[in-house]
């Protein structure tokens, strides 16, 4: 501020006077305050998760993962819940991943910028915002009752698929949009059709974003409780241990998320560590899945050529 | 001369394009499908004869006795109060931290630290709601009991903390995007005029990015209103007006009262109703109420974001 007074034909050297020093101090205080905020936000969360995992980890073993719950769910493992979650994820992924990717291809490659496209966009945004309990009601009204599938893996998977499709649509669209227009133009110029261009040029170049979206979808499906509660998941079911295909498509199943709810609130007399162990399996698998997504994204981005 | 493609290739391409178009409009189909099927189950209660359902009482009555033997009453006012109390308090807790975090991420932090913070936030956003509910029961519950010396820790405060923790990661990442969208020359102009970072943030950055931040908060509200398992486990789930004491006077300790929300009511009661009964239909009607609330919130957030794009 005092620099004007000393103005001279020769350039003024930068001096650290009181005003500048005060400014630097303010800067540090500001940075400190905002850093504290984010630390205050993240540390308790990480602490809590660490506590859960530390409580649950001792109970987890290979046996715990591969035996059925026993004695009113107070003993035994989580095999039927684990397998149920795996099958729910696989079946619903087979439905929602191709549909989601194709919906994104439509929105990014085919749709013109008109009122109809704007409505589709609005529908995607709103579909992402529909509460999970309403999806549960929809799944029950549509798949279980109207299409008469009954409660089972198929109805639950379809509900999960509708619910998580926006995740894939959004991330695929972003990935498709990042492919430079000149790539497409070059391909059209050598005589390729629109679909050939998409199949050979656009999709391979945006695979990292698509994969990220699909993996994020997996973790979302694995953790959801409400949408499967009334469409296919049950509190308890015994299945063949060690048989990966123990569930049929229309069977009711157990699920990890629902099992956590059951052993926390409905079961008396379970050892204290049991719910912690179930929660640990759920948290660790979801963090692993999401880390895979992040790693895939980083790896493929480093190989990007443009 | 132009080479001709074989007929089946042309045909296959047309077919693929139609499949893609169909998938493209599936989002619309699903949104309408959700409205249609939820209304198909819940709507008939509005015109069916011989039930105790009164639309006038539905929103204004505090009596929720759907299973009593005679004189069943379906008033959801208490549930609406519960939902908005928990949502409001959780947003009050979350907003300062979320906006502070977003500012730190976009203004103060660079390189590796930023990358890692964003990864941690992304991972936290993925923790499912059932785990948050479990945390509410096993971690926050005893903490509230010992800190505030109350007999039960499953209450409005517990659920609000849970919801705030759930909503914060999303609000931070959307808020950071909003701040990133503020052009750099705004910042440079402020700094060139001699503003400190502190001044720059409060006089330039926040006013310029306020729409995006508002959208981030609104999406947080939407998520909090629709959250089910977390609040079902953390609120205590008792039918209760937290603001009123037994003698009818205002309760200043409302934070430590239990309450019940719209979402949790559906989740806990739907399993015990028989398909087509009035209670079952009323639960679907609550679903429509929820759907309407979240639609309004999401549309507002969308319009706010659109507003930013138009300004540019």
Placed side by side, the strands forming the largest sheet of chain A appear as 1-2
> Could you name the CATH homologous superfamily of one domain in chain B?
MetI-like
Please identify, by name, the CATH architecture of one domain in chain B.
Answer: Orthogonal Bundle
Total helices of chain B: the number is 12
Fold-level CATH name of one domain in chain B:
MetI-like fold
Strand proportion of chain A, as a percent range, falls in under 5%
Assigned CATH architecture of the largest domain in chain A: Orthogonal Bundle
Physical arrangement of strands within the biggest beta sheet of chain B? 1-2
Helical percent range of chain A? Answer: 55-70%
Total of helices of chain A: 12
Secondary-structure blueprint:
The complex is a heterodimer of chains A (306) and B (312).
Chain A: H1 18-56, H2 62-66, E1 69-70, E2 75-76, H3 79-110, H4 115-129, H5 132-146, H6 153-177, H7 181-189, H8 194-205, H9 207-223, H10 226-229, H11 256-266, H12 273-302
Antiparallel strand pairs in A: 1-2
Helix pairs in contact in A: 1-12, 3-6, 3-9, 3-11, 4-6, 5-6, 6-9, 7-8, 9-12, 11-12
Chain B: H1 7-24, H2 26-42, H3 55-60, E1 64-65, E2 73-74, H4 77-108, H5 111-125, H6 129-148, H7 156-180, H8 184-192, H9 197-226, H10 229-234, H11 262-269, H12 278-311
Antiparallel strand pairs in B: 1-2
């Amino acid at each position: 501020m005092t620099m004007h007074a000393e103005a001279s034909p020769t350039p003024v050297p930068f001096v650290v006077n009181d005003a500048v020093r005060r400014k630097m101090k303010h800067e540090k205080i500001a940075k400190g305050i905002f850093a504290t905020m984010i630390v205050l936000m993240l540390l308790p969360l990480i602490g809590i998760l660490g506590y859960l995992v530390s409580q649950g980890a001792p109970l987890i073993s290979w046996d715990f993962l591969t035996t059925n719950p026993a004695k009113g769910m107070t003993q035994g493992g989580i095999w039927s819940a684990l397998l149920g979650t795996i099958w729910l994820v696989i079946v619903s992924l087979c439905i929602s991943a191709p549909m989601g990717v194709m919906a994104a291809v439509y929105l990014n490659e085919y749709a013109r910028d008109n009122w109809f496209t704007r409505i589709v966009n609005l529908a995607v945004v709103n579909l992402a915002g529909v509460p999970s309990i309403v999806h549960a009601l929809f799944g029950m009204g549509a798949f279980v009752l109207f299409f008469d599938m009954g409660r089972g893996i198929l109805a639950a998977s379809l509900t999960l698929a509708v619910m998580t499709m926006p995740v894939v649509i959004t991330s695929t669209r972003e990935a498709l949009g990042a492919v430079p227009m000149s790539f497409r133009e070059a391909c059209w110029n050598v005589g390729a059709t629109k679909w050939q261009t998409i199949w050979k040029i656009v999709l391979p170049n945006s695979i990292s974003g698509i994969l990220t979206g699909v993996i994020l979808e997996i973790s979302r499906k694995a953790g959801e409780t409400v949408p499967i509660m009334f469409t296919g998941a049950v509190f308890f079911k015994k299945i063949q241990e060690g048989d990966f295909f123990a569930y049929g498509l229309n069977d009711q199943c157990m699920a990890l998320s629902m099992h956590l709810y059951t052993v926390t609130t409905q079961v008396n007399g379970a050892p204290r560590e049991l719910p912690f162990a179930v929660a640990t399996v759920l948290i660790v698998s979801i963090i692993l899945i999401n880390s895979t997504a992040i790693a895939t994204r980083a790896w493929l981005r480093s190989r990007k050529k443009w | 001369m132009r080479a001709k493609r074989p007929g089946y290739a042309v045909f296959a391409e047309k077919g693929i394009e139609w499949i893609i178009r169909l998938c493209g409009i599936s989002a619309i189909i699903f949104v309408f499908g959700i409205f249609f099927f939820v209304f198909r189950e819940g709507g008939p209660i509005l015109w069916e004869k011989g039930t105790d359902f009164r639309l006038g009482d539905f929103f204004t009555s505090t009596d929720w006795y759907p299973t009593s033997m005679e004189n069943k009453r379906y008033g959801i006012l208490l549930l609406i109060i519960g939902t908005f109390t928990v949502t409001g308090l959780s947003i009050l807790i979350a907003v300062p931290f979320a906006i502070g975090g977003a500012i730190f991420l976009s203004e103060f932090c660079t390189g590796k630290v930023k990358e890692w913070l964003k990864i941690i936030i992304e991972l936290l956003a993925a923790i499912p709601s059932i785990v948050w509910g479990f945390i509410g029961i096993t971690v926050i519950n005893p903490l509230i009991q010992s800190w505030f010396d109350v007999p039960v820790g499953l209450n409005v405060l517990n659920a609000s903390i849970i919801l705030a923790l759930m909503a914060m990661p999303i609000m931070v990442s959307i808020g950071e995007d909003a701040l990133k969208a503020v052009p750099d020359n705004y910042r440079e102009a402020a700094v060139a005029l001699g503003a400190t970072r502190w001044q720059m943030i409060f006089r330039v950055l926040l006013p310029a990015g306020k729409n995006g931040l508002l959208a981030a908060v609104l999406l947080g509200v939407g998520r909090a209103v629709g959250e089910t398992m977390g609040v079902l486990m953390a609120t205590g789930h008792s039918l209760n007006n937290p603001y009123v004491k037994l003698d009818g006077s205002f309760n200043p300790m409302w934070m430590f009262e239990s309450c019940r929300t719209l979402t949790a009511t559906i989740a806990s009661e739907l399993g015990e109703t028989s398909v087509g009964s009035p209670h079952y239909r009323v639960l679907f009607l609550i679903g429509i109420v929820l759907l309407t609330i979240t639609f309004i919130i999401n549309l507002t957030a969308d319009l706010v974001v659109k507003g930013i794009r138009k300004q540019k």
